[in-house]
# Entry
Amino acid sequence: MTQSVGIGAIARATGIKVETVRWYERVGLLPRPERTAGNYRSYEPVHLVRLAFIRRARELGFSLDQVRTLLRLADRQEQSCAEVDGIAQEHLRVVERKIADLQALQRELSELIASCGQGSIAQCRILQALTPDPAAAA
# Structure
C-alpha cells in the first residue's frame, strides 16, 4: 500500500473486519486516520503496519492491554527491550499453564473413553462421570 486507502481496503489487506478496525480506533490502538473531503477515513501505510502488528499480537494471544503496551514500546526505538521481553515471558507462562491444563483435560478424557465398556447407556462410565452426585449438591 503506497497511497491512502479506505477502510474496506485496509480491512482486506490486514484480514481484520471493518468494525474491528473502527473499534481499534475508538480504544486508541490505532491512530485515527485523516478524513477525505467526503468524510471517509483515509488510511496510510503506517496504519497498515500497525494493524498487521495488532493482528499478529492478537493471534499470538497477547491481551489488548499487552498489545497497547507493546505498541507504545515499539514507538520508542531507542529504549531497552527488557519490558517487551518481560511481557513476552509473562505471556509464555500463561500459555504454558493453558497447555498444562489442556494436557490434564486430555488425560482425563482419554481415561474416561478407555473406561467405556461399550455397554448400555445405564452403565456408561462417561455419562456417569459427567453427572453430578445429587447427594454432593445438597
Notes: The radius of gyration is 24 Å.
